Amino acid sequence: MAEISERSMRLGTENAFVVLAQVNELIREGRDVISFCIGQPDFETPPNIKEAGIKAINGGRHGYTPSSGILELRQAVADYIMRTRSVKISPEDVVIGAGAKPFIMYSILATTDFGVGDEVIYPNPGFPIYESQIRAMGAIPVPLNVRQENNFSLDAGELDSKINKNTKLIIINSPHNPTGGSIPLHDMKEVVDVLRKNPRCWIFADEIYSQLCYDQKFVSLSQFDDLRERLILCDGASKTWAMTGWRLGFAVNQTLAPVFSKWVTNTESCASQISQWAAVEAFSGPQDHAIAMKKSFLERRDIIVELISELPGVKCLNPGGAFYIWPDVTEACNITGSKDSEHFRIRLLEEVGVAVLADIHFGTRVSENEQHIRFSYAASVEDIKSGIARIDDFLRRHI
Q: Is there a single domain that holds both residue 35 and residue 70?
């Protein structure tokens, strides 16, 4: 019998989509399910951006483009970086991709070699594709714990302890998925001091939630001039402009831009030209809708944090960015006789029709004394109130 490659066997998945499939199946069976499991805005793409896509179609702009993307979009990205980070870059240093996610793989491929012991440091808990791609590309994943007691920021001392001669790439994500934590300026400066001590390490800055930072100004690693030569800045259109299905992201680095372009040529050829023209409008056009969406997410965050903090056996920090909360349900597990967060998650789905994700969907638990679940509050206020009320009833039945 023909065998599947070891690389493919190492490949993980993104459990948000697995749980979403379960939710959709339950809904097809007639079950009433409120879902907080998928990380995508529940808004429509703004009308001006949709019109730009339609204009591209009607104008015949639906063929191949250069693998790095159309110049108009790369210039729009450069202007966006200047506007949001006060950093001047050249459009020649920008590469466009079918979403930001491919650049995780391209960055690992560009900075490590298969099976030679190269290491990549990544946040844990973290976006599950980090660890999955590190393993699949033949490098060694080294988790850097993101801790509740540190308000889900990064500990520079712990980062320093993880770096050695085999470290090739360090992944930093702020605002952070799944906790919603945002690295404040003081902590980021300490992280930067560690990065400066290790000039041979590439840095991947996952800033896809950069425009969804609420309580403090967003701190980008691109603002530290001396890191820029080895910094891979990654962002995209999905979260800020509700364009998840348009699949449009980018990465910026002068040295690696030609390498990324070759990887794009070898995989996706180019991002959709239609999506690229829509993204020109997203990055360059009026920002009223993006601002309104951010305001709505902030309102929802405040509502869900207040409601969930009143639940028996649940503790919740107030996240600084993105659209996630990461409540501690250790005591709630004890109250309900659930053996851990995953068992608790399954019971919420099966017994009260509320879909969330468990901490094990985002890596190994930082502490076995803490059990967490993730809510995406990219959901209506009505669903937030109804969903939390169902959980409240579930918990109080066991007290």
A: no
